[in-house]
Amino acid sequence: MTKVITYGTFDLLHEGHYRLLKRAKELGDYLIVGVTTEAYDKARGKLNVVDSLVTRIENVKKTGFADEIIVEESVGQKVNDIRKYQIDIFTVGSDWVGVFDYLQDYCRVVYLERTKNISSTMLREQNSPIHRVGIIGTGRIAERFIPEAKLVSGVSTQGVYNPHRESAERFARKWEINAYEDVEKFYDAIDLVYIASPHETHYGYIKAALEHGKHVLCEKPMVLQKAQAEELYASAREKQLVLMEGIKTAYCPGFHKLLGIACSGTIGSIRNVEACFTKLEQTGRRELTDRAYGGSFTELGSYVMLPVLKLFGKDYEDIRFDSICDEKGLDLFTKVSLRYPAGIATATCGLGVKSEGRLLVAGTKGYIVAEAPWWKTSYFEVHYEDPGRVEKYSETFLGDGLRYEISDFLSLINGNGDRAFQLTQGESIGLAGMMERFLEKRVVDTERLFRDGQTEV
Ligand code: C2G
């Protein structure tokens, strides 16, 4: 008798799970299915699991393919189970290719092809359907999205759209999803859109996605003009769709904890915020070659402006941008100085100048400091006048962190979720306004640069 084992969460059971179990059963005579516990899913960083363990076991049972169902509680359990149940074949979907090769010392390992097309609801009684995601853009950020989305239960990446067929196909092959060059077919196959195309294309794509009735998660900077942001949010509201700007820091638990402490009065009234994020970029990259929309502020400004907007709001009295630019007029380093009625702030970012990346929030009783990479907030300290008194805070930041924003996006779509510290629409509009002011100034400065032959503006 050939004994087969497979494992999974099997949340909101869908065709992908069903087909996997069917083919797993066909590999042998006896199929054991391991269903993960809530605690194990939490430990491996899976968010948003909706169904209870009991419901998930029931759903696996209903498929009729499992001869035996066991519970998976920890990371090392697979080897023990394979020995204990004298397993011949371990199988799992091809989205895990390579990960379980180490089990080859104990049994045969078979990766079954992942199911690319799933419908939004498989079980009729299911209240929460699976949201099928379509990605627009095939660049580096889009690459990061897929493994992170896999760790958010309730979403399935269905396909990618890129008007350049070859890019779409290359990307789709790598991630085992569908490639679309026909935009209508793309929209027919999905429920929500993740936009990770070049900045200046966001506005057009968001508009079209909303017109097709899709919820939108768009990478920062969402748009580069205030009026565009206002128009898009109004359109989303009118169509009862969710439009969300993806600045990953804004959705991660450590940053929320930091904001909570800053707003609690522990450090008194906040008077100064300083945020810095620099990342030396290779020459030749779009960020340093795109004269119209590249540069450090469009690339990193959203991160450094985020704590300023969160702590002081969007109604500044004065804003000033100072940049160091390259010979093409692209900013390699930008410092934004803001004055508010009760405080001051500086937000600094760089692609061609390295500095100490830190977030400092100074108040009348103490200060909070988070060192780089504070934008993936996992640790910060609170200091007071007495140098011996230091409070230390840690929080998990899992993987690349996109899972938090995807999870929050789903919460918004499902009409729930704690919105205390996430990015608000008003802040997102405020950011678009800053991008607009910055780019207007840069155009003027660049013209002057070329007129005067200067390199610094
Ligand atoms: N699957 C699939 N096609 C999809 C979605 C999922 O073939 N469109 C497969 C997965 O590859 C996995 C199984 O269905 O083999 C269960 O998927 P999940 O419930 O998402 O569980 P997962 O996180 O993949 O658990 O120990 C846990 C296992 O290692 C994998």
Question: Can you describe this structure?
Answer:
The structure is a single chain. The protein is 35% helix and 25% strand. The protein has 457 residues and is of the alpha/beta class. The strands form three sheets. It has an eight-stranded mixed β-sheet, covered by helices on one side. A six-stranded parallel β-sheet has the order 8-7-6-9-10-11, with helices on both faces. Strands 3-2-1-4-5 form a five-stranded parallel β-sheet, with helices on both faces. It binds [cytidine-5'-phosphate] glycerylphosphoric acid ester. [cytidine-5'-phosphate] glycerylphosphoric acid ester binds next to strand 1, helix 1 and strand 4. [cytidine-5'-phosphate] glycerylphosphoric acid ester (C2G) binds next to strand 1, helix 1 and strand 4.
